[in-house]
Design a protein that fits this description.
The chain has 417 residues and is mostly beta strands. It contains one helix and 24 strands. The protein has a 14-stranded antiparallel beta barrel with strand order 1-2-3-4-5-6-7-12-13-18-19-20-21-24. A four-stranded antiparallel β-sheet has the order 8-11-14-17, with no helix packed on it.
Length: 417
């Protein structure tokens, strides 16, 4: 083996999305699973092929809903609470309007890639480290189950849960050129098992006189949350002279069944001076999820219209991840589709580098979902132990009509020196 010689450096200034319908090939309109990223890579010529080493930072596309927070200041305010914030026991917000106080996921991803068999086979792998800052505000019900009715508003307890975690994982991928016009690809992302290194729970006690004079001591807590493994398979067909037309069909599997609940566990947090009780140690707060694995089919195409303009068109269909029993406003999921289109300016040379710019737009279409009260099995979280028990005929807090649609706009730029 001869010494490695640097051949090229690639810098992705900012990017958005999985490039292509599956993320395996740079070929079609932007998918809905967008992300912001920055990456640097260096390529070396070897006797057996090419070796590339790189480092990237990417932030997955994450919906960050925020809903009204009701007032409990007066008797009139209490009467309005169910109408102002009927979703309050599921979520008030994953942010408070300030980017510095918002849930965020970021993944550091060094990558090693090799090109073999005269560039017919390309392999890549990389360790990952996800930085997680989780911030969620919601209402709990501190009803002691003796002297109050379900969802009695003066027992509502405002909770702000925050956690920070560093979570390792790993991904691997490969593409193989079967024919000059046909490439196959596969990629696998291991799951992220998020366990917080540090967390806090801040609480505002209910306005009910039962808690007059009571105080909360302690605020440390831990978070447990699983994110899925992801398998992607794809095929790309290149047609016309100079591969001007590229078509891709891809499939994505995500193991969301790994996420059965999201749990915050208080550590020595107690309510003191509760009337008739004294001190009450708070128990774990779990949000049932019981999610299902999802399957997604992507289809798209990319056409070089002329030298400095590429057009894209694509679409996808994805199955529902959340059953009626546990769907809430946190993730109002359903079967969904997307139509996307995009433009790119490829191979633009200036400042001794090759530049590429991308713009994509996608429209996610999701049919309305109606959950009957008896089908919802998510109930107000209650830190007062033992856990509240509800008879089967009592409906949960996830019942209602869910209407969801949204747009995804993605911008991207890359530099190849």
């Amino acid at each position: 083996m001869r010494a490695m010689s640097p051949a090229a450096t690639r810098i992705v200034v900012f990017g958005a999305g999985k490039s292509g319908t599956s993320g395996l090939f740079h070929c079609v309109a932007q998918s809905a699973e967008a992300h912001f990223g920055r990456a640097f890579a260096r390529r070396f010529e070897m006797s057996w092929g090419r070796l590339s080493a790189g480092f990237g930072l990417w932030i997955p596309y994450t919906g960050l809903p925020r809903y009204p927070t009701p007032s409990y200041a007066t008797e009139q305010d209490l009467q309005k609470v169910p109408d102002v914030a009927p979703q309050r026991y599921a979520l008030l917000g994953l942010h408070d309007g300030n980017i510095t106080r918002s849930t965020v996921l970021a993944v550091l991803n060094p990558v090693i890639a090799a090109s073999l068999l005269s560039d017919r086979l390309q392999l890549g792998f990389g360790p990952q480290l996800m930085l997680v800052y989780f911030r969620s505000a919601l209402m709990l019900s501190s009803c002691p189950q003796v002297m109050c009715r379900p969802e009695q508003v003066d027992y509502d307890t405002l909770v702000l849960a925050q956690a920070f975690a560093l979570t390792p994982s790993f991904n691997v991928g490969a593409t193989y050129r079967v024919l000059p016009s046909l490439r196959l690809g596969a990629a696998f992302q291991l799951p992220f098992f998020i366990r917080s290194a540090k967390g806090t729970v801040d609480t505002r006690l209910p306005v009910n006189e039962f808690f007059n004079g009571a105080t909360v001591t302690g605020r440390d807590a831990s978070l447990a949350l699983n994110l899925p493994a992801i398998l992607r398979l794809g095929a790309e067909l290149r047609l016309l002279k100079n591969d001007r037309l590229r078509l891709e069909l891809a499939y994505t599997y995500e193991s969301w069944s790994l996420q059965q609940d999201i749990t915050f566990t208080p550590q020595n947090i107690a309510i003191e001076n509760v009337k008739g009780i004294g001190t009450y140690q708070l128990g774990p707060i779990a949000l049932p999820r019981q999610m299902s694995d999802t399957h997604t089919v992507h289809l798209g195409g990319e056409l070089d219209v002329f030298r400095f303009l590429t057009a894209r068109l694509g679409g996808m269909f994805e199955t529902n991840s959340t059953p009626d029993a546990t769907v809430t406003v946190l993730t109002p999921d359903n079967n969904k589709g997307m139509i996307a289109l995009g433009l790119a300016v490829p191979r633009l040379r200036f400042l001794s580098a090759e530049w590429r710019f991308d713009l994509s737009y996608g429209r996610v279409i999701q049919p309305d979902r109606v959950v009957a009260p008896g089908d919802s099995k998510v109930y107000p979280g209650n830190p007062i132990r033992p856990a509240a028990q509800f008879p089967p005929e009592v409906g949960g807090i996830g019942a209602g009509r869910y209407q969801v649609s949204y747009d995804v706009i993605a911008l991207g730029a890359s530099i190849l020196r």
